[in-house]
Specification:
By secondary structure, the chain is of the alpha+beta class. It contains three helices and 14 strands. Helix 1 runs parallel beside helix 2.
Length: 306
């Protein structure tokens, strides 16, 4: 192989003859340069692509982590909302019970309508103090705690009031008050009177209520039957023990409707008016005893328990 060199100054040419080793070296130089450059470029671009892939993978992992945290936050928020919802439902149930209790107490106490109206929402008011945004979770918990405390206090007060009202109701039930009949009139008072059989002045240990035979005889207080049967001079008689030293008697009955040991309530029908025993006609002989001593029933007939 010959290589010709031409000079630009004098226009002369020179030729160089290459042997086989020189040819090989020249070929390697001419061909190796572009191949080496390509390899270098390939390495450069290949390295950039690897970094890009790594960056993409990193972003994917970070996104997956953020999605996981977001889902966990959603689950936690949902659980908190469910917990608050359950607590609110429990508080509403307690309010329903309190309202029912309040209405019952109002009815028991015979309070004026509107004074204690548990069916209406509590009256609230006051000047506006500026705009308030949404409550934070801590504020909401504080509000629930405050409402819970108020409910507990209200329940406690109503419980005390109910206890007092029950005591009052029991006192009313066990207190000797009222007439032993629904219909009739007082035909003889307590104390000395003219005896209807022999006309002499004699002591009358009770009061008499005349009426129609078979009319109802009612208990003037709750108690326990300690006598139900015939007694000399009284005919068919019923005796009730009301506790605290009080005993009442209902005599000359046509029929007794209770037996010894029965518990009777105030106003319950215990017998029928008749004329058994020492009697001139249908009536009920009514006696009141306090601590074993006979007392005038008239004061208990007119008595009012407050």
């Amino acid at each position: 192989m010959n290589i010709i060199f031409i000079s630009n100054r004098d226009g002369k040419s020179r030729s160089v003859s290459l042997n086989n080793w020189a040819k090989v070296l020249l070929s390697v130089c001419l061909l190796g340069l572009p191949v080496g450059g390509g390899v270098l470029l390939g390495m450069q671009f290949g390295g950039d692509q690897s970094d890009l892939v790594s960056s993409i993978e990193l972003m994917k992992r970070e996104l997956a982590h953020q999605q996981s945290e977001l889902e966990a936050g959603r689950v936690e928020a949902r659980q908190k909302v469910e917990a608050l919802t359950l607590k609110l439902a429990a508080m509403q149930a307690r309010l329903v019970r309190i309202d029912a209790l309040g209405e019952r107490l109002t009815d028991m106490a015979s309070l004026d309508d509107g004074e204690f109206d548990f069916s209406q929402q509590s009256a609230l008011g006051g000047p506006e103090q500026g705009q308030v945004g949404l409550l934070a979770h801590s504020d909401l918990q504080q509000l629930y705690a405050q409402l819970d405390k108020q409910l507990a206090s209200r329940e406690s007060q109503l419980g005390i009031l109910e206890s007092l009202m029950v005591d009052r109701k029991l006192k009313q039930e066990s207190s000797v008050t009222g007439r032993p009949i629904h219909k009739g009139w007082m035909s003889s008072r307590y104390g000395y009177r003219t005896d209807p059989f022999h006309g002499r002045r004699s002591w009358h240990n009770g009061v008499d209520f005349a009426g129609k035979e078979g009319a109802s005889i009612v208990a003037v207080a709750s108690g326990v039957v300690t006598w139900a049967g015939d007694k000399q001079g009284y005919g068919q008689m019923i005796e009730l023990d009301h506790g605290e030293g009080y005993i009442t008697r209902y005599a000359h009955n046509k029929k007794n409707l209770v037996s010894v040991g029965d518990a009777v309530k105030k106003g319950e029908v215990i017998g029928l008016m008749g004329s058994s025993g020492r009697s001139t006609g249908p009536h009920v002989h009514f006696e009141v005893y306090k601590n074993g001593r006979s007392v005038d029933p008239a004061s208990y007939i007119r008595r009012t328990i407050r």
